Amino acid sequence: MTIEPASTRRGLLGAGLIGIASAGGMALAGGRAHADPQTDRNVALIRDYYAAYATGDPEAVRPFLAPDVVWRIPGHHPLAGDKHGPDEVVAFFRRLAEGRFRAEPLFFQGQDDLVVDIHRGWSNVGTGSEIDQLYALLFRIRDDTIAEAQNYLTDMYQSDAFYWEHFPLKSIPQRLIGG
């Protein structure tokens, strides 16, 4: 998949999403849905979460997570599946940091306790496959923290191949003894 330069991508993506949102019945003014103060705080929370993620320190995202957060990663690869609680979510982000995974937020929209973002995610760890695609995350916000996140991606096959190559499972004896 080829990703256009950020300036082109933002223009095309923003126009397309605004059309989708207005077709769905949201009231838009100047490309932005009318939101209440809580919705604005929720979107700001997710923007701040991405700023913390961009530091490269997985612990920086911990304050954004509810104590019972569930983070869902689709796929058939070693990092796929539901992560329960801040410790598992931070451990997931630690693995992404090992793979030099980056995210560039492109779009945010909130309504009530939900925030959707679209971002470019990529990693090129130097050998073999790399990944560069668009992702959407649906966040549920509770008490000014992320209570739930569902990840959607544009190319599951590319994702599975990348994660299997760069995050292989330990051998069966090591998995069985916890080593």
Textual characterization of the structure:
The protein is 37% helix and 32% strand. A hairpin with a 2-residue loop joins strand 7 (131-142) and strand 8. The longest helix is centred in the first third of the chain and has 18 residues, at 6-23. The chain has a single domain (8-14, 33-167), classed as Nuclear Transport Factor 2, Chain: A, CATH 3.10.450.50. The strands form 2 sheets. Strands 4-3-8-7-6-5 form a 6-stranded mixed beta sheet, sandwiched between helices. A two-stranded antiparallel sheet has the order 1-2. 17% of the residues are buried. Residues 1-32 have low confidence and may be disordered. The chain is built from 5 helices and 8 strands; from the N terminus they run αββαββαββββαα. With 179 residues, the protein is of the alpha+beta class.
Rg, Cα atoms, Å = 17 Å
Domain unit count = 1
This entry's quaternary arrangement is single chain
Global geometry: globular
Please provide the count of β strands: 8
The top-level CATH class is Alpha Beta
Structural category is alpha+beta
CATH topology: Nuclear Transport Factor 2, Chain: A
Low-confidence stretches: 1-32
Name the helix and strand elements from N-terminus to C-terminus, one letter apiece: HEEHEEHEEEEHH
What fraction of the residues are assigned to beta strands by DSSP?
25-35%
- Give the biggest beta sheet: 6 strands, mixed
Instruction: Compute the average pLDDT.
Output: 78
Number of alpha- plus pi-helical segments: 5
Kindly report how far apart the N and C termini lie: 37 Å
Can you give the helix content as a percent range? 25-40%
